[in-house]
Amino acid sequence: MSKIEARLQELGITLPVPAAPVANYVPFVRSGNLIHISGQISNDNTGRYKGTVGVDVSLEDATEAARVCGINLLAQMKAAVGDLDNVVRVVKLGAFVQAGPDFYDVPQVVNGCSNLMVEVLGEAGKHARSAVGVYKIPLGFAVEVDAVIEVADRR
Q1: Could you point out which of 9, 36, 38, 138 has its C-alpha 20 to 30 Å from the C-alpha of 21?
Q2: CA angle at residue 12 from 89 to 93, to 5 degrees?
Q3: Is the pLDDT of residue 154 over 90?
Q4: Locate the Endoribonuclease L-PSP/chorismate mutase-like domain: which residues (predicted)?
Q5: Count of domains for the chain
Q6: How many Å apart are CA 146 and CA 148, to the nearest integer?
Q7: Packing angle between helix 3-11 and helix 106-121, nearest 10 degrees?
């Protein structure tokens, strides 16, 4: 078992089957040692992370939704690289929060994903990021996060 797989098990995290695209795009693209992972929504197959943060989704639930996005990103990373130990670094996260008109704690929401990356990957999980409040996210989900990761050159 790889080091990262053992860490996931220790944290009680089971990676889901990576989500298939819902439109005309691919889940990830590799260019050299960088992999760009398409946005992953806060879908845990329960539907509980849908809605507008600050209106019908609480800060706490939105933070958990961002964590779900992180778990979905890890599933796509695994699909892209095979062994998560091949991830050298999470370079950048781009996060979008479906925010109500008076909700400004977008960075705190996105910490749900950021904290997970560091929890699972350690130093390699530390990243640059953007955290943006938006009007709508596809399929009505509360949070979406995409990623750029660097991987070991083992092609």
Answers
A1: 9
A2: 30
A3: no
A4: 5-138
A5: 1
A6: 7
A7: 120
